[in-house]
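Side project, low priority. Logging it here so it doesn't get lost.
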Amino acid sequence: MRTLEALSGGEWVATGEWIDVHDPADIRTPIARIPALAAKDVTRAYDHAERGFAVWKRTSPFERARIFTDAARLIRERVEEIAADVTAENGKTLAEARGETLKAADFLEYYAGLARRGYGTLLHDARPDTRTHTQREPIGVILVISPWNDPLITPARKLAPLLATGNAAVFKPATETPLSGLHFARALHDAGLPAGVLNVVTGRTAEIEEALLDDPRIVGITFTGSNAVGNRIRRRLADRNVRFQGELGGKNASVVLKDADLPAAAKAVVAASFGQAGQRCTATSRVIVERPVYQELTRLLVAEVEALQIGPGSDPAATLCPLSSPKQRDSVLADLNKAVEQGATVLTGGQPDTEGDRAHGCFVQPTVLADVAPETAIWREEVFGPVLAVRAVDDFTGAVEAVNDSDFGLAAAVFTRDLASAYRFADQAECGQIAVNTTTTGWDVHLPFGGFHDSGTAYKEQGEEVLRFSTRVKTVAVHFGA
């Protein structure tokens, strides 16, 4: 079993206590162990970040870009090693893990370009002989908390823009999946990132939460995870001048109108719903279909789902991976049992998969549910597993109403051949990400990303929009007359 260290002040450090990391495809034997850091270690990480920020904010943007470009190259060179660890600790297929690894490199390259280009605005000034502009500056030390479902791409999405703009970070990866984030940190470290600019804290959240969240040097927190935890952080920050960027829950819907290409829609919906075993924040979990094509679409969905190959992510033939932990597996199974109790009909799946060696993993059969009432928990609450609920509506208006009848507003899709319906849906759906004739998943690095309502906060991720979170705006007026 491998022993890994955390990064603090430019050094790889460990303690006397350890946390085991398990493969969800076979939880019997740990695959690695990481340091269980204590509160004093977290405070030391903030000490390093404070000193690192003082250096990094004065570092040339061209040097930041060079480091990012070199780190991206290292990630691409190490893609097979990194992808194997993503699969081992998270469970997703190797194909998904490779894609995640390469996308992490994409984030570094994109923000290297942004650092080189600069960001600001030239403004007219009413005063004579005066030239005014705005410039964006880093805000300071930012705490990054990432989830277990996308253990590499989420740290990349968060860390790349805030580091590129001159901030320093203390990074807490999910305890279940820390190896991926450590790979990302190692690439930056090996590329020459100055000491203290990025510090990785591994440990049991309950033991270090106070030290993580309450340090007075924090100026921003970016968090991806559950609404319960996100709202707890938000309340904790209520009387502090600390920015909070939250990417929280989702209950994403795909609408299939009667004029849609039904086979193409079914393939796209199943890809969006069952990729990574449904453990994506943008995964489709609700299908809303016009009644005239309900039976045919349901038949196509079931056929696509039953063609999925369940297996460990390391198996090249597998197209459906295990859930990421026994806790998550048991949560999904409890949601399925509750759905049946509330009247849902299981069209396929609905049970744990304990066939052969899968008995030692966290496998759940891919599931399609019908007869799902809009007030039931399976229709309204995030499941985060390989579960798809299907419901018929009378018309386009009913479909949009069903999409918007949710506390969440992250992603939605519509499948139609009618351009007017597509644009009306884009205008009327209350979600931050809208797809037409494609999946609710798969938003590229340069596209602003984030949801409405309970799915997130006003600060979006990705693209240039993220600068609203990671920088502050300064207005400068220069009088050049006599």
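Brief comment: The radius of gyration is 23 Å.
Revisit when time allows.
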